[in-house]
Amino acid sequence: MLKGMSAQRGILEGYRKEVEGNPLVQVYRRSEVAACRGQAGDFWALVKGGDGEREVGVGAIIMATGAEEYQPKEFLYGVNRRVITQREFARGLCSGEIQAEKLHSVVMIQCVGSRDMEHPWCNRFCCTEALENALMLKEKNPAIELFCLFKDMMSYGFRERLYSQARDNGVIFLRYEDRREIKVKGADRLKVHFQEVKLDCDLLVLSTGVIPRRENRHLAELFALELTEDGFFKEAEPKFRPIDALREGIYLCGGSHSPRSWQEVILQAQAAAERALVLLEKEQVVTPRIVSHVNERRCSGCGLCVEACPYGTRVLDEERMKAVVKEALCLGCGVCTSLCPNGAAFLQGYREGQIMAMIEAVL
């Protein structure tokens, strides 16, 4: 973990210097996007900052807003100074504030604030953090008693070997089914009661993950995006388009997409940049073959399709009282065709005559 934190700081510092030193990159500090309009290849964002506001034209947008660290409310965190998180533990070992040689016993609890009814997801990095910290602690103090209470140890990829190394070094793993069965009491010397086991420890270290940012819902409305049930931004397709948002020209990476390790975050960011470059290198943006159209003779201007369109594709021409389609934004989802009471909305390639012809050809 300590080596990982050092690597993270080095990588971030390197990226920061590259960005600030690149004459082609414009950085707006203490600013926010107040409005966004347009389409893939032709977005316009209203940026508000301390020096006023300006409208900036961009071809693509990458959502890299991150996530929030979960702040524990359980196990005496914030009440007893001997209850800390894995990141606080790692920083303490780095700075020397926590002296490993003076500790006799440490207990770690996994999945604090995750894999429960409120936050059902796995954060993908908490177990790796705990295993790396445990190995570092054992290296500094081989005689220390170290217990890890876990629901499932999920150290992804080649990091699974960390679990075997930790066991070989004397870390004791105890599995629980429900976090509520773990009770913590005490002051100077903490007492952790778990099933029939009673543990005394100098430190209790909680493995916490991340939760969606509170601003996600506002940003989803601002950029016409969708959120998952968990509150992260929804990708277009998890297997074939995992970086693309549901709106063309907008891409996702890092904690805005889902909880990830910092190595995965870097890979996602690189993938998002590549997807943006694929879009920007085109001279023209070609719309999908299947887009929605309006039969103006049937359209009554009721506006149902305009309200229902999830991508802001349709607008109402108030002078003519007819629905109008922005074809560059349309993804051909078919919501408008299912709602139109007059049959005025239809998808290109899916007219009644064409569908009947396909059915007859099959029969």
Can you walk me through this structure?
- It is built from 9 helices and 21 strands.
- The model has no long low-confidence stretch (mean pLDDT 89).
- The protein is of the alpha/beta class.
- Helix content is 28%, strand content 27%.
- It is elongated.
- It folds into 3 domains: 31-67 and 212-280, FAD/NAD(P)-binding domain, CATH 3.50.50.60; 69-211, FAD/NAD(P)-binding domain; 292-362, Alpha-Beta Plaits (2-Layer Sandwich), CATH 3.30.70.20.
Write a concise keyword list for the protein shown above.
alpha/beta; five-stranded parallel sheet; 363 residues; FAD/NAD(P)-binding domain; 21 strands; 9 helices; three-stranded antiparallel sheet; 3 domains
Question: How would the blueprint of this fold be written?
Answer:
Layout: H1 2-21, E1 32-39, E2 42-49, E3 52-58, E4 61-63, E5 68-69, E6 83-85, H2 86-95, E7 105-112, H3 126-140, E8 145-150, H4 160-168, E9 172-175, E10 182-186, E11 190-194, E12 197-201, E13 203-208, E14 210-211, H5 216-222, E15 235-237, E16 241-245, E17 250-252, H6 262-280, E18 292-294, H7 304-308, E19 314-317, E20 322-325, H8 335-339, E21 345-347, H9 352-362
Parallel strand pairs: 4-17, 6-13, 7-8, 7-13, 8-9
Antiparallel strand pairs: 1-2, 2-3, 5-14, 10-11, 11-12, 15-16, 18-21, 19-20
Helix pairs in contact: 2-3, 3-4
